[in-house]
Specification:
alpha+beta, six-stranded mixed beta sheet, Nucleotidyltransferase, domain 5, globular, disordered C terminus
Length: about 475
């Protein structure tokens, strides 16, 4: 069994929106109370109250009605989050990460999670529990939950990117296959992660997959250009340090948060599409093991502000997590190996070569030539623990499948127009832009000028 989470928006009335924000503020008060109690204990030299059971006893001593409409289940979820954060920081500090801090930052809005049996979900309606004496809170979801109702284990109310959301977590069984179609663990494929190609996959029998991420890169660049232009335009009305912003400035900042959230959702959806393509291709080829090169070591290398920006937009950790989740649901194992030196190693003879600057790798020792990312993926596959892969099938004999990631990004398909670009001129109805001479009449078509003059017996005089 694996757990998957889907996020959906909410369609709320003004009163429902205010009640949801009231619950999130009450959850923030629970978090602040935990911080305040441990602050008192720290100043007295006492042991901190970090255990979940101890925090729940303190919550029970506070009595009903202390946190408004928030019920005990939602308050305990906040205490569980605090306890996990505290013990995680303690474990990392014990391991030597002295820069890690214990949770001491107050938050005005905190996510609230309700577990199975405490909420109701039917179709596009979800019922959230509230404290005793308050009317029930029924919310309408923006879309149907993509999981069967019997598999849903928890729902989480949160505020992110300027909007209210519901996260629905379900427990799903691992996919099953017929006897002759299940993934074979002995069939190994190497996966190379990148920016231009988020996934490059190569197998032992000469099959390969290339997923292009140029649309994702274009989305990052357009969003960065729009952000720069928006900041230049709003620099004059930005409040100075220590000055409270105006209502106009708050509206500007809210709009910027909405646009930033939309950009993150688009790129995240594109990464999901790319990972789904890889897992589906692996299932079709009965691949049971994916060996992925872990490039997260390059994040600590300073390579200039431009390249550092590219690495920050790459989202390596999220890409790995998405691939691992989808592979686990399909019953495919994922191994992470060190990819150091794979881009400068010939997959055919194994000798060191000069790292290519283009997309083609050429070896002067064995005259091997092929796509750089696919050659790197095969070298990564050879590093699978217990693997017997030693040589690479020539690129000319490979079957390479090309796919694109981000098919639903604006501007990629004609069905979805990029809102950053001006709309096309309407062929009929609405504004037609500045006046131009009418085009000549073609058989089967009419110009706009003739369409406006329909019903008149005389042709318009263009010299008037």
């Amino acid at each position: 069994m694996v757990h998957r989470t889907a996020r959906t928006g909410l369609r709320l009335t003004h009163a429902q929106r205010q009640r949801c924000f009231g619950l999130l503020r009450s959850a923030g008060d629970v978090w602040s109370c935990a911080l305040e109690i441990n602050g008192w204990r720290r100043r007295r030299g006492d042991a901190p109250a970090a255990g979940y059971q101890e925090l729940c006893r303190l919550l029970a001593q506070s009595g009903p009605g202390t946190f408004g409409e928030l019920d005990s289940t939602g308050a305990r979820s906040v205490l569980r989050r605090y306890s996990d954060a505290w013990f995680s920081a303690a474990a990392r500090r014990k391991a030597g990460a002295v820069e890690v801090r214990f949770p001491r930052r107050r938050r005005s809005l905190m996510p609230i999670r309700w577990y199975h049996g405490t909420f109701g979900l039917e179709g596009c309606r979800v019922r959230l529990p509230v404290a005793r004496g308050y009317p029930p809170l029924l919310l309408r979801l923006a879309r149907l939950v993509p999981y069967p109702a019997a598999t849903v284990r928890s729902v989480t109310l949160l505020f992110a990117d300027g909007r209210l959301w519901i996260d629905v977590t379900a427990e799903l069984p691992v996919a099953t296959y017929p006897a002759d179609q299940q993934p074979d663990p002995d069939r190994v494929a190497g996966v190379d992660l990148g920016i231009i190609h988020p996934f490059a996959v190569a197998t032992r029998d000469g099959h390969a997959l290339l997923v292009s991420g140029r649309a994702i890169r274009a989305e990052h660049r357009l969003h960065l250009a729009d952000t720069k232009g928006r900041r230049r335009a709003t620099a004059r009305r930005a409040p100075s340090k220590g000055q409270r912003g105006s209502r106009r400035w708050r509206k500007t900042r809210r709009r910027a948060r909405l646009i930033g959230g939309r950009h993150r959702r688009r790129t995240r959806q594109a990464l999901h599409e790319a990972a789904k393509t890889v897992v589906g291709w692996a299932v079709d080829h009965r691949i049971g093991t994916l060996t992925v090169g872990d490039p997260r070591d390059v994040l600590d290398v300073q390579a200039g502000r431009r390249h550092n920006l590219r690495l920050r937009q790459w989202q390596i950790g999220r890409t790995l997590q998405i691939l691992q989740d989808k592979a686990a649901l399909a019953g495919i194992r994922v191994h992470l190996v060190d990819e150091r030196g794979t881009s400068s190693t010939c997959p055919h003879c194994g000798k060191k070569i000069t790292k290519p600057s283009g997309r083609t790798m050429a070896c002067r020792h064995c005259q091997f030539a092929g796509h750089r990312d696919l050659a790197t993926a095969f070298t990564i596959a050879a590093r699978t623990p217990g693997s017997a892969i030693t040589t690479c099938t020539p690129i000319a004999a490979q079957v390479v499948t090309h796919r694109r990631a981000g098919r639903r990004l604006p501007g990629v398909a004609t069905a979805r127009r990029d809102p950053r670009r001006p709309p096309p001129r309407a062929a009929a109805g609405g504004s037609v832009g500045r006046r131009r001479p009418a085009p000549p009449l073609i058989s089967g078509r009419e110009s706009l000028a003739h369409t406006r003059g329909r019903g008149s017996t005389t042709s318009p005089d263009l010299n008037r």
